[in-house]
Structure prediction request, 370 residues.
Amino acid sequence: MSTPNKKLLILPGDGIGPEVMRQVHRVIEWFDKKRLARFETSEGLVGGCAYDSEGAPISDETMARAQESDAVLFGAVGGPKWEALPFAVRPERGLLRLRKEMGLFANLRPAMVFEPLVGASTLKPEVVSGLDIMILRELTGGVYFGEPRGIETLPNGERRGVNTQVYTTSEIVRVGRVAFELARKRRNKVCSVEKANVMESGELWREEMQKLHDAEYKDVELSHMYADNCAMQLVRNPKQFDVIVTDNLFGDILSDCAAMLTGSLGMLPSASLGAADSTGRRKALYEPVHGSAPDIAGKDIANPLACVLSFAMMLRYSFDMTEQADIVEKAVQSALARGVRTTDIMQPGTARVSTTVMGDTLLRELDKLA
Ligand code: NAD
Prediction:
């Protein structure tokens, strides 16, 4: 199972970012020690800490290292200390610059329910037990970027706000490809979501997805669904889905809806992928969905599992290390099954542990699985 070096840039960021990333470091060291995977890691600053010591939320030098790396692992940025800064140097601009300059157009948000946490969901256990779906959101196009946009005053004095939902064939096809390729590594089903009944951009989305499927991905099952129905189906019967692919706006909403099926922010990983190069390798950034949680930073009580699961996504999607990714996910499952919980996922009858002790437990479970 040993593999060659992989270049990994680690950007812990602010608040709980460095605390949760420390536990990922321990997992990386464990893989190295067991000779199951070896990474060439380096660290950089991003967010408020980068502004403090380098004058920008991400320096050109760190940006260049991100571009050269095989994958970027990102913690979280932001906090009250930097809230009054001008917009251009706010911590969040570091993440936006990474996404923009690395061309990360595909946002992967898995919604996975770990059996010991079934009770954390607001839905009935039988609806979410065993849930494992992937929402793929187009991240760089659509109504958040479309022109014309703005607020204008009409001749009659009324004001009018305008945004434009716009997609081109190539934008649809590139995210469609990611969806079909993801499905091939999962349960081989893609559901493409739009509003083709009332929007021309949705009609084009549906036609292009179908064409791409028929030309290159006939082995994958493709269905189409309107976004409003998808929102209903996600809470009615989420297990009918495997991969859902949708645009920026609908993806924004549906991915949060799907995430909450699992019940906890501290458990949610994500990935953002760019275009494939000639070798098939994509630029990629992996990060927990949660922010820097200033309210609990520095207390060693944050849940490190979202960050650890983001690392597992990196193994799976950037490096094709399926077995290693499975081991990490199984270790998380077993640690939870032992009844250890950080504060955010506490349930009656379980033991409250620190970030570090959750890491210790994870390493013990990894040892058993190796
Ligand atoms: P948040 O995700 O940081 O926190 C929301 C709540 O969830 C808090 O009560 C926090 O304590 C809790 N929480 C979050 N992650 C947790 C974890 N791993 N373990 C235990 N509890 C956890 O969101 P927020 O409070 O809206 O934002 C705080 C800061 O983070 C802001 O500066 C915001 O701009 C930034 N932010 C950054 C990112 C990012 O870096 N990608 C994302 C969202 C928010």
User: Anything to note?
Assistant: The domain at 132-261 is CATH 3.40.718.10 (Isopropylmalate Dehydrogenase). The pocket of nicotinamide-adenine-dinucleotide is lined by residues 16, 20, 76-79, 92, 95, 265-266, 287, 290-296, 302-303, 306, 342, 344 (CB under 6 Å).
